[in-house]
Amino acid sequence: MGSATFRPCWWTCCSWRSCKASNVSTAFRCYLQCKKKLLGKQFDDYDIQTMRKRVHFSIIEGPKGEPWVEIQGMKFSPVDITNVIFAKLKDIVLMNQFHHKLEVVISVPVFFTEQQKEDIRSAGKRAGLNVLELIDETRAAALSSTTIKEGFVVVFGMGAGSYSVAILRVFGTKFEIKTQLGDTSVGGDQFDDILVDYFVTQINKLHSVDIREDKHAMVILSEAVEQAKVKLSSQPEVAVSIPYFTSSAQGPVHLDITVSRPQFEQLVSNLIEQIQDKCHIILKEARITGNDIGKIVFAGGMTRVPKIRETIYQVFGKHQTATVDPEEAVVIGSAIQAALVVEERREMSKDMIPLSIGIECAQGIFTRVIPRHTTLPTKRMVKIPSWCDQGECLRIRIFVGDHVLAEHNTHLGEVELISNRNCQGCVDFELTFEVDKDLVVKVSAKNADDQLEAADDVMEALKPFPVYEMVIDEKLVSKHSVNNAVRKALLDWPIYTAEINANLRNLARFTINTLSDVLSVRKDELPKDLCEDALTAVADLQMALFGDVTLLKDKVFCAKSIESTLLEWRPPSESREGDLLA
Questions:
Q1: Spatial CA neighbour of 388 closest among 492, 467, 495, 488
Q2: SS (H, E, C) 431-481
Q3: Which ranges form a coiled coil (predicted)?
Q4: Choosing a second label site near 115 at 20 to 30 A (CA), which of 175, 207, 259, 419?
Q5: Last residue of some domain: 434, 466, 492?
Q6: How do residues 18-58 score in pLDDT, each as one tens digit?
Q7: What residue numbers bound the domain in which 507 lies?
């Protein structure tokens, strides 16, 4: 496979008039990078609004609230752009093939939502491709290194828009993902943005001109900076020279700035530290050391950056590196997967949930029901004690993600549990989550003491769905808030005896993280005694985490009480204002 096999994922839209008016090489051209982040998103999403401030083309709101791009009076949806790329690739293949039926395997980022995957399938179908399967880039990169036979392998992938790091265990012809992390907001584009900001600042200092409003100059600068970044991977310094780059009050401005590799590494040090922290976390989650790693596989052009490789080696050790070209690793792995799908030669690795699925609890805290990295298909149950009058409902909001606050995760939908039978006291509801290999979530509910099961509904993961009602044949009389009901559910988390230890310890870790996060943000304003109680609770949980289960349950009970007080505490001034308003 030569370099000619691979094509860049961007699309050039060039006006015919501008081409006629001047040389094509100097015509104003708008390069639309195929921003994967636009797929499956809404225009109002925070990351889309952030992207609008950085890119040099217009992002507008589409007819259904999705982000579209507008350039030279033409409007395109993300699926349209992806369709153009797929169609072009199809034409290239057909030039060397004698049949017109193309079956493909497409690689996608590991944290792609189901809606984003559906957009990819839709674009492929419109381009006339039969999409056999979507494979995440981590698995594809691992497949590309066929020399790995047994042991632990680190796969680090970084492209233009995101990065991911995973630890896989290889045994024979199979492999499983032990753990994986990543960030969809950090990639090569962010490194480019930092370098562009540096050049803009230097131009302002040298020539007293701000070029941020000059889109033509910014496009040219972005291209030059990206090329300089690539060259810095093999050269100690790079000079960026562009004659007649822009103009100022004093006349034409000629760009001539030199940047060195140490300067570049210093500029992006914060991003490098973020990557390093993620690598330390994933190594700890896998419960192995760097000595257990047998090989490191790099995927994506950004992994050529020396500082990134140095960071990976510092965390995992300088082990044997796979010989596959980083820019070809995912493509080769996808091709191997296609052969395996068609020929069915051997069993592939098991699919896993990349993000946790859970419910919103008191104060908007997100509680995991199915943790990330759970092998699919899977089935989990959570027991929820509740008090409410006849006709009242217990509304459960379901999310996917790993942020401590539910609102920062992706909302799957809501389930309402409605009682219609007389009963006194607290009644336990059992909410069952089933997830199949297509990431379709099936939710059912019943009373823990009754065999009558509520109607169940199917929710497509990562897609909005209407509110469904689940009617429970019960009557509850004691009146308490739903928040208290769900909070008490956390103290009765274990469902099956076989899972009690793991679930309880997961709850303990979750509580430790919550208390630590609150203390780090509000330590200066919280009362000293409350901070001390929280610190003591964290220390007690850490000491009891792998000890006696009964002791751990007591510590969790105490910690949850402190957590509730901590989250509800307000300064006296705010409390008085609230009382006056009430």
A1: 488
A2: EEEEECCCCEEEEEEEECCCCCECCCEEEECCCCCCCEEEEECCCCCCCCC
A3: none
A4: 175
A5: 492
A6: 333 333 333 233 444 545 778 878 888 877 888 787 777 78
A7: 497-582
